[in-house]
Amino acid sequence: MFIGIGTVVNVATVLVGSILGVLVGHRLSHRTRDLVTDALGLVTLLIAISSALTVGDKVLSDAVGSSAPILIVLGAMLIGGILGSVLRIEQRLEDFGGWMQRRFDRGEGRSTFVEGFVSASMVFCVGPLTFLGSLSDGLGRGADQLFLKAVLDGFASIAFAASFGWGVAASALVVLVIQGSMTAVGALLGDVLPQAHVTALGATGGVMLIGVALRLLKLKQVAVADLLPALIVAPLLVQLLVVIRN
């Protein structure tokens, strides 16, 4: 085993799952593919709610006070959303997906490719396992969390690719960059975040995943990528309150 093995396995399962999904997808009716996407959206909603509810964890309330955790998530979402909107993260991610679609076009429509790329990237990269698992791998504590995530992402990529096609496979690049970067941070800087900060980050990621679920269920096209800076803002707000309280 070596540092980074978790990310390598995760990328591989996304690629293999995407290939299987594309192969299976051609044999499924449009109604069945829509049903698969709806099922994935519902499961994503379940995972999102479970993650978001960690905002009530004792470790966070002990660090910042009982009334602050929800305000931290709210503040992180608002500040992060403003920053992401100014930086046009969603638009840049979609443009990147569009460039890849044109570069490797095999007859798919652009919207399907981009939607698969963006939605899969968000599901695979927004969540506590992405950050906790990558940091743990980088610190040399093992990649068990990323192995678990790899299995989940592999099955999810089959369902995604059955509906969205090759755009899901392109999301493996985002997995490689984000998880690889976080693993490098863990290896270079050690244990970066205290548990309270990680909890706030996970709860914020859970709220963002609700936005992904709404997109998958075709209820609301939430610009989830524009909210990504909230994952940085949440731990910073925790640290600010910890300093104030002390």
Features:
246 residues, mainly alpha, 11 helices
Layout: helices, strands, pairs:
Layout (H helix, E strand, L loop, with lengths): L4 H21 L4 H23 L5 H7 L4 H19 L1 H15 L6 H16 L2 H11 L5 H21 L2 H23 L5 H22 L13 H16 L1
Helix pairs in contact: 1-8, 1-9, 2-8, 2-10, 3-10, 4-10, 4-11, 5-6, 6-8, 6-9, 7-8, 7-9, 10-11
H/E series, N to C?
HHHHHHHHHHH
Low-confidence stretches: none
Q: How confident overall, as mean pLDDT?
A: 84
Global shape: globular
Please give the number of β-strands: 0
Class of secondary structure makeup: mainly alpha
Compute the separation of the termini in Å.
42 Å
Task: Count the DSSP helices.
Answer: 11
Give the strand content.
under 5%
Largest sheet, strands/sense/barrel: none
Please estimate the helix content. Answer: over 70%
Q: Rounded to an integer, what's the Rg over CA atoms?
A: 18 Å
Keywords: Membrane, Transmembrane, Transmembrane helix
Pfam family, one: DUF554
Transmembrane segments: 6-24, 36-56, 68-90, 111-135, 155-178, 198-217, 223-244
Protein name: DUF554 domain-containing protein
